[in-house]
Amino acid sequence: MExxxxxxxxxxxxxxxxxxxxxxxxxxxxxVAVLAGCSAGGSARAGAEATTDRFAQAVSAGDGARxxxxxxxxxxxxxxxxxxxxxxxxxGRLRLAVPSAVAPGDTQVxxxxxxxxxxxxxxxxxxxxxxxxxxxxxxxxRTDAPYDCTVDxx
Length: 154
Description:
Blueprint: H1 17-61, H2 64-69, H3 73-83, H4 87-93, E1 107-110, E2 113-118, E3 121-128, E4 131-142, E5 145-152
Antiparallel strand pairs: 1-2, 2-3, 3-4, 4-5
Helix pairs in contact: 3-4
């Protein structure tokens, strides 16, 4: 008894030396791309965390000029609107709660945006060229709603 008839399919050619090399090269390219992607993510995360640390230190030290230099232009405008004075003076008046002592897992990076959330205090950052700037600060979560931010330069 014969088995069921098989439909003709594409012919399988034996893998040649060139085929093996191109297959290995393709695998190597994928591995390098994945590793480069991980490296870039780690680098972006480290940059966002460094900006967060510098911003928290400036706010804690009462160095408004240094803190404002780390804000996006829209966030600086938001500080001035909320405080009624220039950013360097106004940022101290807002009594911002900012994340400090950022730990692994506190930072999430989404392309050119990042969020650092520690102990119920969040900071939102935006990539500007090769650096990170704070676009929203003094942010606390709300139930079933976006964060409530003291400074929101969105």
